[in-house]
Amino acid sequence: MGCGVAIPIDNPSKETMRFPYAQRHSIDKGEIDMRNCYTCQLVARRDAGEAPLWDAIVRTAHWDLAHAYDSSLLGWLVLVSRQHRGAVHELTAAEATELGPLLHRASQALQAATGCVKTYVMQFAEAADHPHVHFHIVPRLADLPDDRRGPHIFGYLGAPESERVSDGQMNEIARRIRLFLQ
């Protein structure tokens, strides 16, 4: 399974970056049709060279590092498999070998860019429109409210448009992270 087929995105602006299909698909119903995987659509947009800086911070042979498009927390990164994988055990040896060092370096870059005291790293691939292996790498800032620590950090994801980190802010942190990783 791969994401190599270009899938058109109706309007690739951050304002409309939502799963474009009306019907949601459960990941428990067998094999996923990658046309219904929004993560695959985002990989295809990057492959076509149409992604903004914040959505293509670093691209390796097997992984893309991007800023989450619907976060109200600056620095919420996502490390995405460039091939459609529904679970970590499906990764190839080459993908797995590249993963560990990338998670480590992305965490270091995020700490350098935000001053966070640590990073949270999570992987679920459970969302109906994102049934694709991706790791959330999230800055745990020193002044993070107690009610947003640990798994409650997800309160910053899926933010209303008016509360999301701006394109300009995401591009600026993306520049700093890319510079650190070069």
Q: How would you briefly describe this protein structure?
A:
With 182 residues, the protein is α+β, with helices and mostly antiparallel strands. The chain has helices at 38-47, 93-114, 167-181; strands spanning 58-59, 63-67, 77-81, 118-123, 134-140. Helix 2 packs across helix 3 (167-181).
Task: Tell me what the structure shows.
With 182 residues, the protein is an alpha+beta fold. It has a single domain (24-181), classed as 2-Layer Sandwich (HIT family, subunit A), CATH 3.30.428.10. Helix content is 26%, strand content 14%. It has helices at residues 38-47, 93-114, 167-181; strands spanning 58-59, 63-67, 77-81, 118-123, 134-140. The chain has a 5-stranded antiparallel beta sheet with strand order 1-2-3-5-4. The longest helix has 22 residues, at 93-114. The two termini are 30 Å apart. Residues 1-32 have low confidence and may be disordered.
Distance between the termini: 30 Å
Percentage of residues in strands: 5-15%
Return the string of H and E elements: HEEEHEEH
Q: Please count the helical segments.
A: 3
Q: How do the strands line up in the largest sheet?
A: 1-2-3-5-4
Could you name the CATH homologous superfamily?
HIT-like
Q: How would a crystallographer describe the biggest sheet?
A: 5 strands, antiparallel
Oligomer: single chain
Mean pLDDT comes to: 84
> In terms of structural class, how would the helical and strand content be classed?
alpha+beta
How many domains, in number, for the residues?
A: 1
Find the CATH topology: HIT family, subunit A
Per CATH, the class reads Alpha Beta
**What spatial form do the alpha-carbon principal axes imply?**
globular
Radius of gyration over C-alpha positions, nearest whole angstrom:
16 Å
User: Helix fraction?
Assistant: 25-40%
Uncertain spans, ≥5 residues at pLDDT below 50? Answer: 1-32
Q: Give me the count of strands.
A: 5
Query: What CATH architecture would you give?
Result: 2-Layer Sandwich
